[in-house]
Amino acid sequence: MATTKAPEDAYTAAPFVPEHADLAALREAAAGCRGCPLHRDATRTVFGAGDTGARVMLVGEQPGDQEDRQGRPFVGPAGKLLDRALAEVGIDPGETYVTNAVKHFKFARSGPGKRRIHKAPSLRETVACGPWLAAELRLVEPELIVVLGATAGKALLGSSFRVTEVRGTVLEAEIHGRRERLVPTVHPSSVLRADDREGAYRGLLSDLKVAARTLV
């Protein structure tokens, strides 16, 4: 049985991850995770969602503002763009499993209305959340992982990962005891921020087409 308390100076979700749990039990346990300080300011834990028998797992960075409010991953503007791109290359978004390397929203308040502005999680916070992602991988057992951005890539493949160097290629790696195939691409939020949004979207589509061909 998992315990419910981590050492005061430790950043790890491991004590909160129950053994031999299904995804529903993992999601319930994750709601009480105190493995790093991010839980203090976030509204809730945002666990993975989707088809538990999915051939494709999509891994992003962390929940955003809308995800934190609604409790589901990829429901904001970046998620809508991702769904559109997946459908365009022939991957049914409803048949995927989507999650994030970090399960709590990290933000700073800024501006007159004190809007919550995304802040990238630290390596320590990403590593702390790793046991949840490892448990999801063991249960879903995807045929292919689509890596969305640098943080997800470093969480899965190590700190030397550079999305610009390997995007749109098929990689193979040993991850949490399983041999995985991965296709890295940019995070869809970067498309929304791009000066040339149409060009950035075409680049995302090109990478996702590689993923779609890999599944044939």
Overall description:
The structure is a single chain. This protein is α/β, with parallel strands linked by helices and 216 residues long. It has a single domain (14-215), classed as Uracil-DNA glycosylase-like domain (Uracil-DNA Glycosylase, subunit E). It is built from eight helices and eight strands; from the N terminus they run H-E-E-H-H-E-E-E-H-E-H-H-E-E-H-H. It has helices spanning 23-30, 65-70, 77-89, 123-140, 150-157, 163-166, 188-193, 197-215, and strands at residues 49-50, 56-60, 96-100, 107-110, 115-118, 144-148, 171-175, 178-185. The chain has a six-stranded mixed β-sheet. Helix 3 (77-89) crosses helix 8. 39% of the residues are buried. The model has no long low-confidence stretch (mean pLDDT 94).
How are the SSEs placed, and which strands pair?
Blueprint: H1 23-30, E1 49-50, E2 56-60, H2 65-70, H3 77-89, E3 96-100, E4 107-110, E5 115-118, H4 123-140, E6 144-148, H5 150-157, H6 163-166, E7 171-175, E8 178-185, H7 188-193, H8 197-215
Parallel strand pairs: 2-3, 2-6, 6-8
Antiparallel strand pairs: 1-3, 4-5, 7-8
What tags apply to this protein structure?
18% strand; 216 residues; two-stranded antiparallel sheet; globular; 38% helix; 6-stranded mixed β-sheet; alpha/beta; Uracil-DNA Glycosylase, subunit E
